[in-house]
Amino acid sequence: MTAERINGKAFAASLRERVGEHAAQFEASAGRRAGLAVVLVGEDPASQVYVRSKHKATVAAGMESFEHRLPADTSEEDLLALVAQLNADEAVDGILVQLPLPGHLDEQAVIASISPDKDVDGFHVTNAGRLAVGQSGFVPCTPLGCMMLLTERLGDLSGLEAVVIGRSNIVGKPMAQLLLDANATVTIAHSRTKDLPSVVRRADIVVAAVGRAEMVKADWLKEGATVIDVGINRLPPAEGEEKGRLVGDVDYAGAEGVAGAITPVPGGVGPMTIAVLLRNTLVAAYRNADLQVPDGL
Ligand SMILES: Nc1nc(=O)c2c([nH]1)NC[C@@H]1CN(c3ccc(C(=O)N[C@@H](CCC(=O)O)C(=O)O)cc3)C=[N+]21
């Protein structure tokens, strides 16, 4: 059996298009465009690439993009002052501070300073708490994007066995909560889990978010499982390559022979993250303007 390839890139493109249509309606009703502010501290090349693609996608969806690039030695005081200014700016609906921050800056303190109503990453404790107790807030983009791919493929997830590998605050934990809300039976596995292969083998749904290249092997999977690969790892360059290949946390070539469906890397979950960021920003804009968030957004 060859697994169906879940085309996250195409799904993300259609989500961005839908967001774009709603963004135009928002502009017509509110008399202004929805706005996203992205703050990048330092010159990390990977972060620069991400910030660039967020900017392009934001503009393409008919929203305002405010980019703030600060030097690597920016003080926490200056960064907090910028966030305070963005919190107060009515043209800014969403604020994203690109992570990781340089080591001298306290990420938790910076996230805590973002207004929860502009926290389109869903990283603020207030939004984590809202998700935990089932109140509406902002859900982190990557797990929400994974849920969209899962429900599109599987429909109702009730009673399915889901195993999330990884317990981070930005992917593993919120992913588990979303699956639980969708009535799946959820296991969170991690580096101390005993006999991880046999835990994964019972899963109808596997979400791999550990950050270890090709760790999940074909013989860990139940026949027909749906596999969502959140990992983005760059392998060391092979002979004749300038840069190493990008691979996920799942051994795709092997898993393809066992899984029912699987997301590729690149072209799977990654593009969904940015599309959901735009979606969350537009939801923030509707709420901040006291307008009804449209159905289906
Ligand atoms: N405050 C904050 N929010 C984030 O959401 C956030 C962040 N910080 N820091 C870094 C991570 C990473 N991230 C990705 C977004 C898109 C792709 C993506 O589109 N990847 C493509 C291309 C990959 C490539 O070619 O490099 C793909 O998988 O097909 C990947 C990773 C958002 N992050």
Verbal overview:
The protein is α/β, with parallel strands linked by helices. The chain folds into two domains: 32-123 and 272-288, 3-Layer(aba) Sandwich (Rossmann fold); 141-269, Rossmann fold (3-Layer(aba) Sandwich). The chain has ten helices and eleven strands. Strands 1-11-8-7-5-6 form a six-stranded parallel beta sheet. It binds 5,10-Methenyltetrahydrofolate. The site of 5,10-Methenyltetrahydrofolate has 16 residues, from strand 4 and helix 10.
Fill in the keyword field for this structure.
10 helices, Rossmann fold, 297 residues, binds 5,10-Methenyltetrahydrofolate, alpha/beta, 2 domains, single chain
Q: Topology of this structure?
A:
Elements: E1 4-5, H1 8-30, E2 35-41, H2 45-60, E3 64-70, H3 76-88, E4 94-97, H4 107-113, H5 125-133, H6 141-154, E5 161-165, H7 172-181, E6 185-189, H8 196-200, E7 205-208, E8 226-229, E9 233-234, E10 246-247, H9 252-255, E11 261-262, H10 269-288
Parallel strand pairs: 1-11, 2-3, 2-4, 5-6, 5-7, 7-8, 8-11
Antiparallel strand pairs: 9-10
Helix pairs in contact: 1-10, 2-10, 6-7, 6-10
The protein binds 5,10-Methenyltetrahydrofolate (GUE).
| DSSP summary: helix tally | 10
Task: State the domain count.
Answer: 2
Overall mean pLDDT? 97
For this structure, what is the CATH homologous superfamily of the largest domain? NAD(P)-binding Rossmann-like Domain
At the fold tier of CATH, the topology name of the largest domain is: Rossmann fold
The geometry reads as: globular
Strand content: 5-15%
Stretches with pLDDT under 50, minimum 5 residues: none
What is the CATH C-level name of the largest domain? Alpha Beta
Largest beta sheet: strand ordering:
1-11-8-7-5-6
Distance between the termini: 35 Å
Helix content: 40-55%
Number of strands: 11
